């Protein structure tokens, strides 16, 4: 049996270990010759060439949509790809099925995470400064929408949501991931999920205001990426309905009870 694998990323647990699960003389797992590296995305042309060249005699294809669309797990959290580019990449699955109709294709796509700490090691650059604040905003917005709370907090309503300034660490001359937060007087939040129609713009980088340390601009950038990734995942579900994908799994990445991923 020959299985094509488009892994989540280049880490051994995703790229190397699957090949060790089966006897080599019975199951052959093929991967692209080159993947990305942490924040550097894989080359889409390399992935595309691999799929069309190797699918002709494959018994099945298991593909990560994070790899196919964005170049890997971490790039899925960082990209500024245009919607038309991403939907074109997703269309490759349809083209592949049309060329090889007998090939069963299975897919998975992660729900983008929102860590509670401030670090840009595996997130956008602004997460070093605003990570905890972005997470806190998401958790409070989620609680307000559901009317629920965690055992440690009282129920939250929309009027309880803090202002951006109240979500940021107190000025200390040095940013710390463990900084405590003091919440400002309650106001209605101004940050709302971005509509899909506003996502396909010509900008390929964060807005200048985001780079200058504007919390709301950074939050908008983060939410826009989440919204666009969600649209791609919903479109992938349509491929299951059409019988192009056999099935799709949506694992939730590093999530908590309340927050944007939940």
The total of helices stands at: 9
The share of residues in extended strands comes to 5-15%
Quick one: how many beta strands?
Answer: 5
How helix-rich are the residues, as a percent range?
A: 25-40%
Strand order of the largest sheet: 2-1-3-4-5
**How many domains would you count in the coordinates?**
2
Oligomer: single chain
Structural class: alpha/beta
Order of SSEs = EHEHEHHHEHHHHE
Radius of gyration: 20 Å
> How would you sum up the global shape?
elongated
How far apart are the first and last residues' alpha carbons, in Å? 38 Å
**Overall pLDDT score:** 82
Write the layout of secondary structure elements.
Blueprint (H helix, E strand, L loop, with lengths): L1 E5 L5 H4 L12 E3 L13 H11 L5 E5 H6 L4 H4 L4 H17 L5 E4 L18 H20 L17 H4 L40 H4 L3 H27 L5 E3 L13
Parallel strand pairs: 1-2, 1-3, 3-4, 4-5
Describe the overall structure.
With 262 residues, this protein is of the alpha/beta class. The protein has two domains: 2-108; 127-223, no CATH class. The chain is 37% helix and 8% strand. The chain is built from nine helices and five strands, in the order βαβαβαααβααααβ. Strands 2-1-3-4-5 form a five-stranded parallel sheet. Helix 5 (83-99) runs parallel beside helix 9.
């Amino acid at each position: 049996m020959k299985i094509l694998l488009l892994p989540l990323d280049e880490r051994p647990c995703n790229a190397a270990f699957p090949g060790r699960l089966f006897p080599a003389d019975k199951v052959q797992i093929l991967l692209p010759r080159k993947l990305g590296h942490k924040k550097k995305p894989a080359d889409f042309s390399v992935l595309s060439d691999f799929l069309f060249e190797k699918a002709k005699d494959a018994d099945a294809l298991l593909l990560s949509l994070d790899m196919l669309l964005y170049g890997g797990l971490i790039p899925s959290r960082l990209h500024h790809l245009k919607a038309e580019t991403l939907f074109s990449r997703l269309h490759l699955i349809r083209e592949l099925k049309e060329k090889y109709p007998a090939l069963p294709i299975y897919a998975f796509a992660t729900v983008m995470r929102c860590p509670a700490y401030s670090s840009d090691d595996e997130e956008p650059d602004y997460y070093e400064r605003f990570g905890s604040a972005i997470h806190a905003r998401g958790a409070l917005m989620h609680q307000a929408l559901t009317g629920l709370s965690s055992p440690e907090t009282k129920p939250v309503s929309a009027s309880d949501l803090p202002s951006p300034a109240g979500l940021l660490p107190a000025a200390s001359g040095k940013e710390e991931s463990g900084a405590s937060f003091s919440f400002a007087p309650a106001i209605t939040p101004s940050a709302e999920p971005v509509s899909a129609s506003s996502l396909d713009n010509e900008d390929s980088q964060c807005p200048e205001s985001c780079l200058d340390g504007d919390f709301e601009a950074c939050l908008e950038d983060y939410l826009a990426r989440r919204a666009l990734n969600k649209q791609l995942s919903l479109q992938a579900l349509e491929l299951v309905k059409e019988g192009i994908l056999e099935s799709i799994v949506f694992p939730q990445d590093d999530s908590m009870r309340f927050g944007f991923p939940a």
